[in-house]
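Our consortium's second objective concerns turning raw sequence data into structural hypotheses that experimental partners can test. To show how far this objective has progressed, the report includes one record in full. It was chosen at random from the queue rather than selected for favorable results. The single chain below, 308 residues long, was entered without modification.
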Amino acid sequence: MRLQVLGSAAGGGFPQWNCGCPGCRAVRDGSRPATPRTQSSIAITAGDGWWLVNASPDVRTQLAATPALHPGGDRTTPLRGVLLTDAEIDHTLGLVLLREGGGVHLHATAATERTLRAGTGLLTTLERFCPVTWTPVEPGVEVALGTGLTYRAFDVPTSKPDRFGTSRSAGGASIDDTAPVPGRVVGYRFTDTATGRCAVHLPGVQALTPAVLDEITGADLLLLDGTTWHDDELVRLGLAAKTAHDMGHLHVGGPGGSLEVLRRLGPARVVYVHVNNTNPILLDDSDERAEVEKAGFEVAVDGLELEV
C-alpha cells in the first residue's frame, strides 16, 4: 500500500493569503526555515488505481505535482474516485475541478451527502457538469477499493457548529439538536489485503475518545490532525475568537494534546497532517517541531511518499 501526501496544510494553505502570523511571515520573507504547503489531501493505492481522500481547492496543483496521477496518452487517468471525511469546503471544493474527468466516483456518508446537496450545493452543481456515482459510507463496514485495498470508516464525534443545519435532518424529520450526528466526520482505516498492514487517515478529530483510539490501535501508520499546537492558538494571536476545539480539532501540544496522548500509546508511525498556518511545528527550527520529533513523530510536507 502506497500513500502520497498531496497537501499537508489546513484550510487556507501555508502561507495563507491574508495572514501575517509568524509562520506565514517566515515563509514570505525567508527569515526562518519553513516550507510552503497546500491544503489537506492524500492519495492512496495498492496497485489498482489511485483514490483521493478529500479533494482540496488545490487539487489541480496537487495532481500536476504527482506523476503517478498523470494521464496517459489520452484523457484516461489512474484516479478512480474520492473518499470524503466530511463536507468541509476545504475538503470538497476540489470536486468541481474534477468535472472534466468524465465523472466522479464519490464515497461519502449520508450526513456529508446531505450537506453537499442541501447545504453548500456543491454536489448539485457538480452533477450539472458530469455524472456523479455515490457510494454510501457506513462506519464499521469494510469496503473494497479495487484489488488489494479495503477501507473501514469510523465515526469521529464532533460538536463543532453545523453551518447549514443539514446534518441533523433526514427525510424531512427533525433530529435532536444536542445529539451527535453519526457520520458527520469520519476517519478511514485502510488495509492492504495482501499484507494485512493498516494505515489510518484522521485529518479532523476533536477528541481521542476510547472508540477513536480503538481504531488507531494496531495501525502501522497514522496520519493525524495537527491543526494547532495550543487549543487557544488563534485567540492568542488575535486572529479569531474560536479555539481548536470549537472548530472540531484537538490541539497537538501541552496537557491533553494529541502528542501527550499518543506518546503514551506508542503507535508505529505518526505523521501530522492538516496543519494550520499558525502552528509553530511548521517552522523547522521551532521548539515545538523539536518536541514532535523527539517523540518520534513527523510533520508532513506536500509530496511525502509513504509505504505501508
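The partners drew two points from this record. The domain at 2-160+181-302 is CATH 3.60.15.10 (Metallo-beta-lactamase; Chain A). The CA atoms of residues 53 and 306 lie 15 Å apart. Both points have been shared with the crystallography group to help prioritize constructs.
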